[in-house]
Amino acid sequence: MSRRPASSSVRNFSTTPRRFEAGRISQRTPRINVTSRILRHSRQLSSTPAPRHGHLDPPKPGEERTITFIDKDAQHHTFTVSDGDNLLDIAQANDLEMEGACGGSCACSTCHVIVEDEGLYDKMEEPDDDENDMLDLAFGLTETSRLGCQVKMSKELDGLKVRLPNMTRNLQASDFK
Ligand code: FES
């Protein structure tokens, strides 16, 4: 039995790209401006400056407030700050050991401070539910504990003294199970 001749459509089928057939077009890689393609398809880079953690503006004359942090070694660190500055920003701007793991969004307790003066503690706004929830998870909780990121300096709090606890707790997902 003779072999069936291939049909013309099959005979003409070729996987060779047309540009390589019969030496019509050279097999050189087509010239593509790769750089311009990448640039065309890549995202624009933003020129927005990165947020500066712990940056504070100096207080206006006559509106200086004083705060003292007492560190784990009982060293006192006193600073002159402005109304509205929160304790986390003040501590970080002055290289004190306050982690502020959540960046001040009331989602950790690594900015825990203990207010030394009960009178000044009573002048602060009450902690809200979120702050109380986080404080419940803080090590060494006291009657005058606060989260530093939630306490803003004001005229009423001038002369505030806070103690940094010996330990803070960086929460894990398992803490919420
Ligand atoms: S920095 Fe996380 S609660 Fe203050």
From TrEMBL:
Reported cofactor(s): [2Fe-2S] cluster
All residue ranges annotated as the 2Fe-2S ferredoxin-type domain in the record: 65-168
Residue stretches in coiled coil: none
Gene3D superfamilies: 3.10.20.30
Pfam families associated with the record: Fer2
Biological-process GO terms, alphabetical: P450-containing electron transport chain
Matching InterPro entries: 2Fe-2S_ferredoxin-like_sf (IPR036010), 2Fe-2S_ferredoxin-type (IPR001041), Adrenodoxin-like (IPR001055), Adrenodoxin_Fe-S_BS (IPR018298), Beta-grasp_dom_sf (IPR012675)
Annotated GO MF terms: 2 iron, 2 sulfur cluster binding; electron transfer activity; metal ion binding
Region (Disordered): 1-63
Biased composition (Basic and acidic residues): 54-63
Keywords: 2Fe-2S, Iron, Iron-sulfur, Metal-binding
One Gene Ontology CC term in the entry: mitochondrion
Signal sequence residues: none
Biased composition (Polar residues): 1-17, 26-36
Metal-binding listed as a keyword: yes
Similarity remark: Belongs to the adrenodoxin/putidaredoxin family.
Official protein name in the record: Ferredoxin
Taxonomic classification: Eukaryota, Fungi, Dikarya, Ascomycota, Pezizomycotina
